Amino acid sequence: MRHRLKLVGSVCLLIIAVCAMAFAASPSSSPVFPVDRELFKFYPSLMVYEQTKAGFTEPETCAGCHQKQYDEWHGSLHSLAFIDPVYQGEYNKAVKEVGSGISKHCSSCHTPAATVTGEIKGPGLSGLSAVAKAGVSCDVCHSVSSLHPCKTPSREPQNGSLALRPGEDGKDGPVLVKRGPHKPAEGCGGGFHDCRQTDFHAKSDLCASCHQVFHYDKHYPLEATYREWKYSPYAQKDIHCQDCHMVGHDTFVKAADSMTKPQRSDYRHYFNGANYLLYFLASEAAKKAGDKDQAARLMHQYEMAVKRLQKAAELEITPNYRNGRLAEVKVRVKNIRAGHNLPTSLTNVRQMWLEVTAKDEKGTVVLTSGSLTKDGSLPPDVRKFSSDGMGSDMHFAIDPWVVTAFSSHETIPPKGYKDAWFGLQLPKGSKQITVEARLRYRQADQKVAEALLKAVPKDIDLARDYGITKIPILPVVDMTSGKKVLTVTAR
Ligand code: HEC
Ligand code: HEC
Ligand code: HEC
Ligand code: HEC
Ligand code: HEC
Q: Which residue puts its alpha carbon closest to atom 30 of ligand 5?
């Protein structure tokens, strides 16, 4: 009897011990997202550098033989990615608030080559090489030798998860190797570089690891453009990022509408997106520096971005009658041509919203929603299609090192729509009302933009370089609009 009790006791103790061990082990030694620190030497960046004696080349050298690609790229957001004053302001804040450990995370996407070589020490531009200032340059994309989405913490492309290999150690010294989607022809590289074909340069996979921004440590997807695209009708029809962003305006519209791929000769290095504000600021800076050609390129990009935004969406106004009387207006916003959600990327910073007004036949305003206040803010009850970020304390937050979740996420899926409802309180005697709706977009809230531009590092002088002495009211683009006359009693 005593013997048996002792045995039961020991078994219980053993179970408790095993459970206790498992408990103690679970939070620290088996995290959900383990990081391979041997592979990811630049963590929190997930970029890999396959170092040889062959170094990185600045875009001006590539321009010697590829002038056309250079002229298109120069003036793209990729060429501005590191010198962008808005980026530098936020980067400066990040390093001040989190410490220098976060620097590689930001700079590996905004200037990859100079990050892996160790040239970038922190915010600011003085003393940097042409390669560093060129941001996402020719030699970044054309040195990508492999992608490793399956090895990242959450097993998907994110935070710069690609490998850079600008060349090889040859018998007689370093040999530059540039990679692209085409089978190299005789003499490819003109004696300056070797050529190699990859299976990913013509696909969204090349863009994925930078266009999926996860929280640097908590792995929360702050920007998920690639993922939104991957689960869209475009991916199923083989329409990739390049087919809308590496072509001119008309070709993009055709690719989005007909789901047909552009011709090989249609591809351009514009990487044109939505950020008309930055193209505009940069063109002002180019004008101040006396570079008329660059100012013109940037204004061309500015116009393409505005036109692109104006092709992205459509809206539809319909009435809703209750007991025979007009009670509500429904505005449906359709994402007809963005290959990902609308808007995408920095959805908790970009703003896209509806402005709706309705008047009766006497001109009495019966509804207004979404008009900017005098100081340039959005009213609190606005119907917007972006997201709000929050920190782990569940308080509103904007900065990407604080945001670990979205408290609302209202972006519109590709070839999908969202409805907004507006209740009406109609004066007695109104017979018909005219509803006007506009879908509006801007890069950021007025106060957010002001705070960011105030945080630029000391060697960027906004007045000297950009001619900005006071942050102007941010420009708003009207993406689309609609107007409809509705009768107050149902017919
Ligand atoms: C963000 C990535 C990226 C950057 C930056 C980039 N390229 Fe490309 N490049 C591509 C992709 C993707 C293709 C394939 C598209 C296509 O079929 O033309 C390509 C194609 C090319 C080609 C093949 C010919 C052609 O135009 O189709 C050349 C040459 C080239 N790039 C040179 C350059 C040069 C020079 C620069 C810098 C001035 C540059 N690239 C910057 C991604 C990039
Ligand atoms: C995984 C790649 C990646 C990482 C890491 C990353 N970014 Fe970015 N960043 C992007 C991309 C892509 C965009 C463009 C999104 C767009 O314009 O819609 C962008 C845009 C921005 C912008 C907006 C610029 C403008 O002119 O409006 C700011 C500011 C910015 N990033 C700051 C940072 C800071 C600070 C960090 C580090 C805490 C960081 N980024 C880390 C890829 C990255
Ligand atoms: C001395 C001239 C010369 C220089 C400098 C040069 N290239 Fe090339 N490159 C060529 C020639 C020639 C071809 C083959 C014809 C073509 O596609 O334009 C080529 C082809 C390419 C291709 C296409 C490969 C494919 O898949 O078809 C890429 C990508 C490329 N170069 C990138 C670069 C980059 C990036 C630089 C700068 C680091 C650069 N080149 C500098 C001459 C040069
Ligand atoms: C090495 C990282 C990297 C790669 C690879 C990359 N991008 Fe980008 N891209 C960026 C960054 C960073 C920005 C934002 C720069 C800024 O706003 O300061 C950007 C900006 C853009 C924009 C402009 C967004 C806007 O708001 O207007 C477009 C469009 C774009 N990229 C498309 C592409 C496409 C298409 C590919 C693949 C062919 C690609 N990118 C590959 C880092 C990258
Ligand atoms: C069917 C065409 C199409 C495809 C495919 C497509 N885009 Fe876009 N993209 C657009 C349009 C239209 C806009 C402007 C509306 C908007 O901001 O979403 C845009 C905007 C953007 C922006 C700026 C977002 C913002 O609001 O600041 C980025 C960054 C971008 N695209 C990257 C990508 C990447 C990366 C891919 C591939 C994973 C891709 N796009 C695929 C059409 C496309």
A: 273
As annotated, the residues of the chain forming the CATH 2.60.40.10 domain(s) are 312-448+468-487
Q: Which tokens hold the place of 454?
A: 């105030």
How many Å lie between the centroid of ligand 5 and the Cα of residue 411? 13
163 forms beta bridges with 48, 146
N-term to C-term CA, the chain = 91
Nearest CA to ligand 4 atom 29: 273
pLDDT tens, 117-141? 999 999 999 999 999 999 999 999 9
Residues 351-362 have pLDDT tens digits of 999 999 999 999
The response to whether residue 275 sits with its C-beta less than 6 Å from ligand 2 reads yes
C-alpha distances (whole Å) from 451 to each of 202, 414, 446, 458 are: 38, 32, 9, 15
Tokens found for residue 13: 């103790």
Find the helix or strand (DSSP H, E) in which 373 lies. none
The continuous run of DSSP H or E covering 240 comes out as none
Element (H, E) at 169: strand 167-170
User: Which ligand number lies closest to the CA of residue 226?
Assistant: 5
Cα–ligand 4 centroid distance for 180 (angstroms): 17
pTM metric for this prediction: 0.94
Query: In this structure, which topology does domain 312-448+468-487 adopt according to CATH?
Result: Immunoglobulin-like (2.60.40)
